[in-house]
Amino acid sequence: MGATTDTYAATERTVPTRSRDRASYDRTLVHSILDGAHVCHLGFVRDGAPVVLPTLYARVGERLYVHGSTGSRPLRAAGDGVAAPGLPVCLTVTHVDGLVLARSAFHHSINYRSVVVHGTAHQVTDAEERRTALDAIVDHVVPGRSADSRPANAKELAATAVVRIDLDEVSAKVRTGGPRDDAEDLDLPHWSGVIPVQGGYGTPIPADDLDPAIALPDYLTAR
Question: Is 179:192 a contact under the CB 8 Å cutoff?
C-alpha cells in the first residue's frame, strides 16, 4: 500500500503521454475527485479482449472497494483474498465541469477532473471487512444511509461480491479555463467560451408504497 505522504509516486503507467502539465499526484486532490463521484469505470482484460464496466465504489483510506456480483467473471478472476494472484485492473473516475467551445473545431474541449488507478483487484472475503466495505459503498451514494437501512442478510451477502484495490499507482488530471484558440482565429465571427456543467440534487421523490407517516430523514433534507 502507498506510503502516507502528500503525493503519490509517479510511475511509468501514471505519467500521461499527452498534456503532462495537467497531471497531478497530490493525495488530497485525488481523494476529493474519488469522493465526489458516484460511479467508476473498471477496466480489465477478459478472454484476451478489453472490458470496461460502470459500477459503484467507495474509498476507505488508501483503498477502493468496488461492488459487484459473485457471479461476475471479473470478480471471480479477482480470487479469494490477498494471497490470490488477483486481477490486473484500471479504474477511472471523471467529473465534467464545463464544455469548452473554441472558434475552431480542433480546439473544442471539456473542463474536467479525473483519476486513473492502476492496480490488482482482490476479492474481499473477510466478513468484517466486507460489511465495512458495503456500508462505505452505501454511504458513498448518500452519506448516513447505511445506518438508516436494513443490512444485507446472509442470502444477499452470498450474492454480493466486493473487490479491493489499493491506491498505489494513482494520478489525477485536470483541465480548467477557457478555449486555447490559435492567434489567427481570434477574429473569426464565432462565439467562444465555456458552458459550465453543474451537478445537483432534486427534491426527493418518495416510493409509491412509502408510509406517509415516515418523514424525510435529516441527511436528505440537508442535501
Answer: yes
Q: Is the pTM of this model over 0.85?
A: yes
pLDDT for 73 equals 59
Distance (Å, whole) CA 115 – CA 173? 6
pLDDT means per 10 residues, the chain with 223 residues, are 76 85 93 96 93 96 89 57 74 97 97 97 92 95 94 88 95 96 96 94 93 92 74
Query: Which pLDDT value is given to residue 198?
Result: 92
- The answer to whether 148 and 218 are in contact (CB under 8 A) is no
Spell out where the chain has E strands: 23-24, 39-46, 49-60, 63-69, 87-101, 109-123, 160-166, 169-175, 193-196
Quick count: other Cβ atoms within 10 Å of Cβ 3? 9
Q: Cβ distance 6 to 16 under 8 Å?
A: no
Please, are residues 119 and 168 in contact by the beta-carbon 8 Å criterion?
A: yes
d(CA 122, CA 114): 23
Which residue in the block uniquely carries the three cell numbers 436494513?
150
